[in-house]
């Protein structure tokens, strides 16, 4: 038998799915919303007649008939040989979103949502149309919705503004507002801005994704590299250089034939001199921005990462953008040779997903780090690998070429 608490659980699930707010906004035909009972067998009715009567009384006591809101109880008549005609509950019915919302104490949220929706329909119909289908995304931000719409108005009037967010002079809207609202702002802006007013290919918020998508300036990351051949940039006194990522991506470095990439700062600083080469270091997953450099597609690119799950993850991500990337010191032989130098990779952050851009040799080493593998949780940091192994790998690599 379904209890009043079961009905509340049913109503809360409908609320959390957004059915109630969508129903109020769209006059959704899902209402009336029904919770159907299983039909009781004749013998069960006889055996539990007193219990059923108490149950019916409890359902009625909390129903719309008694309280003026909430659910209605539908009955169906059952002809029973011993008990005669009996009216037993067959359905619980919520006639409207308002009945359900009030029943679970959400009436104020419903009223506020509809007020915000009506205001949005007047100010920005495109955003309002999206709100009707996505009410649960809006709900946590209703107190700030007027500000969200003002940002939309600003970017409609000033697409791709080319300023820093801190320079945006809108009353009551500061940097903290953007820090907490980037995701919902991006949803709203995508609905109302013309396609040419934003970069559709920028989909995430990491690495200043909001700023890049909507044309704001941002404090972009730097790419640090060392020149490993004195014939590269011979007129410059600088051999250890840091430049904005966009500058690195836009401007090929004359004389460079090979770009080595290493995660670790110390390894980048200690990397040996190699003809026609530079080494880029210290980027981690920020390597994704490095891969935007078109000129790297015509260069040899060699990656040396930690032998841990994230090292292989970064390699796979990089190769997804630059398919010709090679790796060094990241196969099973290197794993076995340096197991005595290993530390434990945290199980909380360890990757176990499928990486589709690894070679067979790299994949074999990666899978040995999985749960159940013979090197489960192993982490061999680059800086712990003996320097002579790097020298040998570079010599071997040079001979292969």
TrEMBL record:
Residues 6-189 form the DUF3322 domain. Residues 216-389 form the Wadjet protein JetD C-terminal domain. The lineage of its organism: Bacteria, Pseudomonadati, Thermodesulfobacteriota, Desulfuromonadia, Desulfuromonadales. InterPro entries: DUF3322 (IPR024537), JetD_C (IPR024534), UCP028408 (IPR014544). Pfam families: DUF3322, JetD_C. This is DUF3322 domain-containing protein.
